[in-house]
Amino acid sequence: MSMQDTYEPQTIEAAAQQFWNARGAYTVKEDAGRPKFYCLSMLPYPSGALHMGHVRNYTIGDVISRYQRMTGRNVLQPMGWDAFGLPAENAAIKNNTAPAQWTYANIEHMREQFKALGYAIDWSREFATCRPEYYVHEQRLFTRLFKQGLVYRKNSVVNWDPVDQTVLANEQVVDGRGWRSGALVEKREIPQWFLKITAYADELLRELDHLPGWPESVKTMQRNWIGRSEGLEIDFVVASPLPSGEERARGATGEGSTHDTVTVFTTRPDTLFGVSFISIAAEHPLALKAARSNPALAAFWQNSSTVACPKPNWRPRKSAAWTPACRPSIRSVAKRFRCGWPTSC
User: Fold this and answer.
1) How many structural domains compose the chain?
2) Range of the domain at 144
3) pTM more than 0.70
4) What molecular function terms (GO) are annotated for this protein (predicted)?
5) Phi, psi torsion values for 202, nearest 5 degrees
6) Are 282 and 301 found together in one domain?
């Protein structure tokens, strides 16, 4: 028998895949006598077509799954679709079609592309996050977290994509633009739901030391993400209204004025006596308040902003510094954690 000079994947692989499918090679059944292994790659967004980034990501997961299967484990590698939210709705509007129709048509097409790649996926367990049988569990989990006091709501400055009309994580902002829409990202303060990850920060840090086989670089990254530090919270009471003139003079003496407070966290309270001025971020509420009462400062804000925007949502790119009459007071010994995704702290 002679060997073919060329490899024809459409012919050879299609026959092999048909053989696997007919025998349910990747359909997982319960088997108490075999150790289990679960391999779930990040769910793809049903954008309409696979690209080489998909191929790279899911090939890595497939190699891991096949290796574990060869060692005798009962391997489950499922597939699902991250299909819920405003990006799907906006894409449907752009394509002049209903969101459900657009989403499910993309899923159908991308499913066939995945199957053509020959991945060892159990398609009998396929799901989509936009289906009620999936998100009912998310709603149940959220409700339980809320009842336990582990979910709360407060205002927060976020990365806002004006095209997708959604909040972006820092990792989804590339060179100041939304990773999907390409729009210039804005800073906005809006109400957000938070998960109280800080309640478990100490436990998470302790357990990092007991993870077998984890690269030290990954554990260091996790420690930095949690960002535990100990220090003091110090209240600087500043004159109000800000920043200058007769109002400031009265504020300096505390006569007939109210006072704003800037709370600062520091791990070096011994440097407190060297404080000579306070610098705040442009999006700080006191900066906006000061600009409203001072035309010169308001003009500075407007000129320093690279994107024109009306009051009160100025987005200046610089910070402000001044030396108001202030008296620091050490409020409490505090532990601070810096958390990343999801927006929670």
Assistant:
1) 3
2) 135-195
3) no
4) aminoacyl-tRNA deacylase activity; ATP binding; leucine-tRNA ligase activity
5) -65, -40
6) yes
